[in-house]
Amino acid sequence: MSGVRSELCASGKITSGIAEKQHLDALVDFIYRTLPFWRDDPERPEADRETVLNETLCGMLNTRAKREIPCFHFIHEAAATGRRSMDMALKPDEKCVFSAREYTRYDTVLAIECKRLPAPSRDREREYVSGGDKTTGGIQRFKLSEHGAGLPVAVMVGYVQHGTPQTWLGTINRWIIEFAGSETDDGLSWSEDEKLAGFKNDRILRTARARSRHPRAAQQDHRGDHIQIEHLWVDMSEAEG
Amino acid sequence: PKVIWEKLRFVRPDGRNIVCGSFYDERETVLRDGAFDLVIGNPPFKRIDEDAHATDIPCREMAYSVLKESFAFVREGGRVCLIQPSGILYNSSCREFAQRFFTRQTLETVFDFVSINQLFNANVTTVALLCKKAQPEAWHETRHLIFRRTVAVQKRLFFEIDHYDDHSVTQERVESCGWIWRVNLLGGGRLVALYDSLSHMPKLRDFINSKGWKAEEGYKGEVRGEENKACEWLTGKPFLPSEALQVDGIREEQITVVTERVFNRYRDLENFTPPLVLFKEHADLPSAFWDCGFLAYRHHVFGIFPKEMAGREKHTAALRRFAEEFDGRRETLAKLLQLTGTRAGVARATGSSRQNILDLPWPEKGFDFCEWEEALLEDLTDGMVEYVQKGERSRLLSQEVRGREMELFQQMFLVMLQGVYPNLRRVRWGAFGGFAYCAFCFGERAELDWPDDSWAREVKQLVYARFGEVLRTVRVVRIYHVNTILLVKPKRLRYWTRSTAIRDADEVFSDLRHQGY
């Protein structure tokens, strides 16, 4: 029966009417607009730990995705490269179950890393960017292809528990500049071009977003190409008191 | 042709490479020149007499035993393809055997004929399993091909597989989800994820247990050949015939008295003493609350009642509330029963069992299905179950798509994709030859030449593909041109339901992703 393939009868290509990578833009926008609903959900348990925050955010994203972008669902704590787990991965929905010919169940469309701002302890202060030789940093892991390997876009969700998104923009960019001027223990090189840019702050919804672009370490990803990171932050400082 | 079935007889073979004897006893003779590349056949469907070959074999079924022992005849990497009773996949009593088997040998393809009765002029439904003698890899996927009862099959012309009956099943699901075959039979795709999420919800039986209640069937009358006993507190008491229990309540005027004098199983007084919530074992889920005195019922009805006789009246309000809640969820639960019931789709449409009803999901806050989940469930009761059971006589195969149905198809398709592509809109639909087409475009206007009857011949060659004399596949044609997506399929209603819209949308999305969008 190997010659009997019933479905492969697609011909031609769309050449106008939609933007390249529109599905990724739609996904990132969806996550961004879900953040305030999640933060303000009266049924969200009070929690400080990242794993609990991630789990409840994943649940909210799945509940809303069912209705708003039913092509996708979110997987919590998906295995990444075998050593570390991603905080969340986004996969095409049941296409991969009913037509695994095109996808496998482990085909991630979008990798999502979540960080608290500030970090829970001083020795992890700069972990949004890099964890040094421990390679626990958010942006660091994407540069090392420990997460999001081969994907053009990734998301970092920032839970702003103290301070403001504006001040954190400045702090994170300062860290990147400092890394650019020094050698790091993980073998990565940084440049000032990797700073977060395009900052937008929504004071009403208390969310903010920015974008950055980073070269991947060539030895981990053979192409040595770039990854674009969408930074989506939700201000939880008032809610946390 | 009929003459082949009725008149053709083969000359009895008798030669050097034909071994006549018992499958179990001739192994050494058969293997004297080495193992085979392929074992293929239709083993006997009968009960094994000898215990030696019946160890761990469900129902002592010889066909399962032959399947298991056939692998001794093939080399490593060789293949076995045998007709089997469909129970190997659909019967819960075979689950342990199947699970053990599928973790040791690689199940490559399931040819599922369960929808075709009398395929071998016998009153048994079958599947054919193509297996490779090799430990399955974790990433392996089994192909599940479902053959429906079509006119061509009824006339013994050829088998047909259509695009929506071609499923892939991961090794994980093959090993641990015995329900996957039944859910694929009912349409597969996102139904699988829906079933998965339902299976993680608390069940009705969990809720009943948490309340200190019990769910038990009514009495069983005399059974000849078994022990039966008299029960004086039951004979002559008020009796509810099962037909008196309807979805809108109990027909009290039909209550009579228990006439039996001996019983195979008479149960306990608690079973018939109010407060009671009574259920009939029927797919429509008739049920009612009862607190108007003692009421007996037979085993086609089951009751939910407090476990203890003492103080049972304090459960009255809670049982009444439960009955009202069940009534409010009945329509949804009846659809879910089609999906979660263990015999759904493979047995008569109206039957159900206490077990299946108690295994229904019962989330505390009720169900929160989105539009596409509702559509999948409605399609089950609105055509899919009938399609599984009646094939060519079902509405889905006997009717063509019309305006209203196409509108629903288009709406569902857009619901699935507009979250990512908000400027996608429907354009037009039409029919030509034996086909229907439906178009969507990005933007205001579609830039495409519309098919007319002159396309029919070319489209027919794309949609229908023959493989030898006995197999035809039915494909879906998707054409992408400038800003327009065109779907072309046979115009039978089966291809234009909301469920197929969901599947088409997922596949179009996959195509668009691969195109860079």
Whole-number total of structural domains of chain A: 1
State the total count of DSSP E strands of chain B: 25
Summing up helix and strand content along with how strands pair, one would put the structural category of chain A as: alpha/beta
Order of helices and strands of chain A: EHHEEHEHEHEEEH
Main sheet characteristics of chain A: 7 strands, mixed
Q: Largest chain-chain contact? A: A-B, 45 and 63 residues
Regarding quaternary structure, what we see is heterodimer
Mean pLDDT of chain B: 90
Cα(first) to Cα(last) distance of chain A is 64 Å
Can you put this structure into words, describing what you see?
The complex is a heterodimer of chains A (241) and B (517). With 241 residues, chain A is of the alpha/beta class. Chain A has one domain (2-235). Helices cover 28% and strands 23% of the residues of chain A. Chain A contains six helices and eight strands, in the order βααββαβαβαβββα. In chain A, strands 2-3-4-5-8-7-6 form a seven-stranded mixed beta sheet, sandwiched between helices. In chain A, α1 packs across α2 (50-68). Chain A is globular. Residues 1-8, 79-85 and 91-106 of chain A have low confidence and may be disordered. Chain B is α+β, with helices and mostly antiparallel strands. Helices cover 31% and strands 24% of the residues of chain B. In chain B, a hairpin with a 1-residue loop joins β24 and β25 (484-490). In chain B, α11 (316-340) crosses α13 and α15 crosses α17. The longest helix of chain B has 25 residues, at 316-340. Chain B is globular. The two termini of chain B are 51 Å apart. At the A-B interface, β1, α1, α2 and α3 of A face β5, β7, α9, α13 and α15 of B. β1 of chain A pairs parallel with β24 of chain B.
Name the descriptors.
heterodimer, A: 241 residues, alpha/beta, seven-stranded mixed sheet, 6 helices, 8 strands, 28% helix, disordered N terminus, B: 517 residues, alpha+beta, six-stranded mixed sheet, four-stranded antiparallel sheet, 17 helices
